[in-house]
Amino acid sequence: MKRILTKEDKNILKSSSRIGFVFSLFLFLPSIAAWFLSKFGYIEIIPDLLPPAGVLLSFLILFLVNRKYWIDLSKGEKDILVKSITKKESKEDYEAGSSVGYSTNGKKHAYYSGMSSHMKYYIIVDNVRYRIDKEMWEQVNENDKIEFHIAPGSKELLLIKKH
């Protein structure tokens, strides 16, 4: 089943395409800097074709990394897959580096604070674990139907919601 992309879906796809801009920028800026340095005579050992080749390669990287997101945005459609939940899970997780102080004898010291804990909620569908928020976890049960909203070109998971 196909539906039109919502504004939130488009924002997700645009934010996913940022990585292409970052990679190309890491090649584009040194290429431009090398061109300026060679143009003003600070460096003379850089070949003349190296800066334009770096700029061209940065645009090629930008296109190759982001084309699947751009295609999804231009088509404006998403696929809806309906599947059933195999299992629900919740587990307590701890935030690394959140403890303060130390205990030398195994007892809690006055200046000791343990690691911060929080709950993570998962559903398992077709042997794949998906993390969901608490509200969604409370609404669904095992064997319930769930909708997966997926961008067809990039295979980006846009939304999970109850069917």
Outline the low-pLDDT stretches.
none
The helix-and-strand class reads alpha+beta
The biggest sheet, with number of strands, parallel, antiparallel or mixed sense and barrel status, is: 4 strands, antiparallel
How far the N terminus sits from the C terminus, by CA atoms, comes to 13 Å
Instruction: Give the beta-strand count.
Output: 7
Short account of what is shown:
By secondary structure, the chain is α+β, with helices and mostly antiparallel strands. It has helices at about 5-15, 20-40, 50-75, 135-140; strands at about 1-5, 75-85, 85-95, 115-125, 130, 145-150, 155-160. The longest helix is centred in the middle third of the chain and has 26 residues, at about 50-75.
What tags apply to this protein structure?
single chain; 163 residues; alpha+beta; four-stranded antiparallel sheet; three-stranded antiparallel sheet; flat
Provide a descriptive summary of the structure in words.
This protein is an alpha+beta fold. A 4-stranded antiparallel sheet has the order 1-2-6-7. Strands 3-4-5 form a 3-stranded antiparallel sheet. The protein is built from 4 helices and 7 strands; from the N terminus they run E-H-H-H-E-E-E-E-H-E-E. Helix 1 (7-16) packs antiparallel against helix 3 and helix 2 (18-39) runs antiparallel to helix 3 (50-75). It has helices at 7-16, 18-39, 50-75, 134-139; strands spanning 2-4, 77-84, 87-94, 117-125, 128-132, 145-150, 157-162.
Task: Indicate the topology.
Elements: E1 2-4, H1 7-16, H2 18-39, H3 50-75, E2 77-84, E3 87-94, E4 117-125, E5 128-132, H4 134-139, E6 145-150, E7 157-162
Antiparallel strand pairs: 1-2, 2-6, 3-4, 4-5, 6-7
